[in-house]
Amino acid sequence: MALQLGDIAPDFTAETTEGFIEFHQWLGNSWGVLFSHPADFTPVCTTELGAVAKLKSEFDKRNTKVIAVSVDNVESHKSWISDINETQNTSMNFPIIGDEDKKVANLYGMIHPKANDTLTVRSVFIIGPDKKIKLMLTYPASTGRNFQEILRVLDSLQLSAKYSVATPADWKDGEDVVISNAIKNEDIPAKFPKGHREIKPYLRMTPQPNK
Known about the structure:
EC number: 1.11.1.24
GO molecular function: thioredoxin-dependent peroxiredoxin activity
Keywords: Antioxidant, Oxidoreductase, Peroxidase, Redox-active center
Family: Belongs to the peroxiredoxin family. Prx6 subfamily.
Order of helices and strands: EEHEHHEHEHEEHEEHEE
Strand content: 15-25%
Largest sheet: 5 strands, mixed
Shape: elongated
Oligomer: single chain
């Protein structure tokens, strides 16, 4: 069965560039971003891992651990890291899983045979502190990911987890949010003291509660 939103993220043990991990234990009470890249020493992947390394402090602010995976081994990853650091003007600061036996790739459905029957596609999984999958994205090998979008989704997920709100199209942190339809009009003032505006009975906006 393919993984779906709300499923428990499969647990696993693996060697990484930062040592052996048990995935759920490694996540602890943090959010997690698990993302796959097709292969080491490839151009798009090099830019992606460099981009994530530069954003590490942003993930830290969101109590989020990031970890990458490909079907190459840890020694290959370690050799590649020097290229990433050199070409992307950064310093790798998060682990890469060695997955030669494709255990992790298969657990998470990262190999799509009609795209490539041996390498992983560019998958992204956001996992909550409850170990449940909150988001899944799949990109083809030819398209590098927008990690600002991953941060934006994390902001939305974390906000929705704490308050009875959703985020509208193209929302960015600090902008107005949508009040959940489960909230009755008479309960809005107590829950959202900053006020609200009703565009339609089903579309009620309020300033972001934690700003």
